[in-house]
Amino acid sequence: MRDVRIETPGARTLALDVPGWRDHRPGQHVDIRLTAEDGYQAERSYSIASPPAGERIELTVERLDDGEVSPYLLDVLRPGDQLELRGPIGGYFTWEIVNGGPLLLVGGGSGIVPLMAMLRHRAAQGSPIPTRVLGSFRQFDAMLYRDELEGFAKADGQLGVSWTLTRAQPPDWTGYRRRVDAAMLADTGWPPETRPLVYVCGPTPFVETVAATLVDLGHEPARVKTERFGPTGG
Amino acid sequence: MGSGFLSRGFSGRRVDPEVARRLPPGQYLESDFPVMSAGPTPIVPTGAWDFRIDGNVEAPPRWTWEEFLALPREKVTVDIHCVTKWSKLDTEWEGVSLDTLLDGLEYSASYIIAHCDGGYTTNLPIEDVTGGKAWIAFNFDGDELAPEHGGPARLLVPHLYFWKSAKWVRRLELVDDDQPGFWEQLGYHDYGDPWLEQRYQGD
Predict the structure, then answer these.
(1) Residue pair A136/A189 in contact by the 8 Å Cβ criterion
(2) What is the helix (H) or strand (E) element at residue A42, kind and residue range?
(3) What is the pLDDT of residues B60-110, one digit of tens each?
(4) How far apart are the first and last CA of chain A?
């Protein structure tokens, strides 16, 4: 691990130098395997947050208090430590410029991580593909990548970024204040007639609700790709 | 991944040796029932549901939901292992054995392709779905199988990684040659034995 960056009270980004890394596609993940002295091992998957960029990758890891691997990655691992990883993995929940748009990305909590790899890739390539992002978090201090995404949107007329905070909002909050619903998706997303490519990632209930609502709104199921995080794990 | 690697400062969470014995390499114990699927959950009312077997078979059969529920059913308690690394022990299912569905049919096949609502497919050798190894399950834990877990009915092949237990299955195609399914075309292993940790191509 080269270095670590604090994102929120519960999440950090680990920057890794991976000799021999072959470029990943935005949306892919890695498997990390930890090995204890007696040979005991634990493996988990983590989404890559960074765009393809040589032999350096970044993972944003959220702490699961009852987790086995994420507390180690956030509390024990230090710059200079070695990690055993495998990847890139996953060929379905991926997006590259060549896949086109318009693009709608809907992330719940740390479900925004693989979407961020797509957005950073799009920005790095200077792509004009019309893109809208909806990020849902419980409260303000849990928001991931807010400043970076707002910066992208300010400089890019083809990118729209919307947020909702579902549990608590600061007094001056101007975003949405409820769970993602049909009205919010209709306001922040694309009309189904434009046949957007849609990526939804988050906890299972979030993904179930958002994907079903998108289909109800008239989006083609085959153009809605989902990735779910289990309720526990990490 | 190499061998002999140690993670500095990692001790890990040990599970009961009796449980550990039942966990394939790289798996951890899960008490919830996580969901993994590639797209929106298809909603198919049971009135519009049917189940077919076709391909290399004489008189391809079709069952409506009522006819399917009237078939001899079995209750099975099995351990399941997802390629995303969770395992769940002693899960209780009720469904129809593939042996029952294939009984009396004139067919020849080396593989089956499971076809599902939503367009998902997966491929399995015929010997892995016959001889009491596979079911079309419609009840889980005493209740109707929930849509996000594959309801009304899913394939259950517990000795392979759980993506082989295709959700929302509607049709089994009997074929001579292996044809990679949805995840198998996307880099996942063609066979998927959790005890050999056959997660991805090349494992």
Answers:
(1) no
(2) strand A41-47
(3) 999 999 999 999 999 999 999 999 899 999 999 999 999 999 999 999 999
(4) 19
Q: Can you read off the two tokens belonging to residue B70?
A: 């009237």
In this structure, how many other beta carbons lie within 10 angstroms of the beta carbon of residue A184? 19
Query: CB-based contacts of B150: which residues, under 8 Å, 6+ apart?
Result: B137, B165, B166, B167, B168, B169
Q: What 3-state DSSP class applies to B132?
A: coil
The structure tokens listed for B174 are 């009997």
Interatomic CA distance for residues B18 and B90, integer angstroms: 13
Burial class (CB in 10 A: 0-12, 13-18, 19+), A196: buried
User: In a 3-state reduction of DSSP, which class is residue A207?
Assistant: helix
Burial group, residue A202, by CB count within 10 angstroms (0-12, 13-18, 19+): buried
Chain A CA closest to residue B188: A90
Q: Partners of A14 in the beta sheet? A: A4, A59
pLDDT digits (tens, 9 = 90+) for B69-83: 999 999 999 999 999
Q: CB-based contacts of A12: which residues, under 8 Å, 6+ apart?
A: A4, A5, A6, A60, A61, A73, A74
Which one of B12, B42, B85 has the shortest CB-CB distance to A36? B12
Q: Report H helices in A39-92.
A: 70-71
- The confidence score (pLDDT) of residue B3 equals 59
Task: Give me the interface pTM, i.e. the ipTM.
Answer: 0.82
Does residue A233 register a pLDDT over 70?
A: no
Burial B102-130 (b: 16+ CB within 10 A, else e): beeeebebebbbbbbbbebbbbbebebbb
Residues B21-36: b if buried by 16+ CB within 10 A, e if exposed: eebbebbbebeebbbb
Q: What are phi and psi of B91, to 5 degrees?
A: -80, 140
Nearest residue of A to residue B119 by CA position? Answer: A222
Q: What is the β-pairing status of strands B154-156 and B135-140?
A: antiparallel
Which residues is A33 bridged to in the sheet? A43, A84
Q: How far apart are CA A48 and CA A36, in angstroms?
A: 24
Nearby residues of B58 by Cβ (< 8 Å), 6 or more positions away: B105, B106, B107
Q: Give which of B6, B7, B35, B168 to mutate to test A binding, by max A Cβ within 10 Å.
A: B7
Q: Does A40 touch chain B (CB under 8 A)?
A: yes
Nearest CA-CA partner of B152 in B74, B23, B67, B65: B65
B202 interface with A at CB cutoff 8 Å: no
Between CA B99 and CA A233 the distance in angstroms is 35
pLDDT value, residue B35: 74
User: Amino acid letter at A138?
Assistant: R
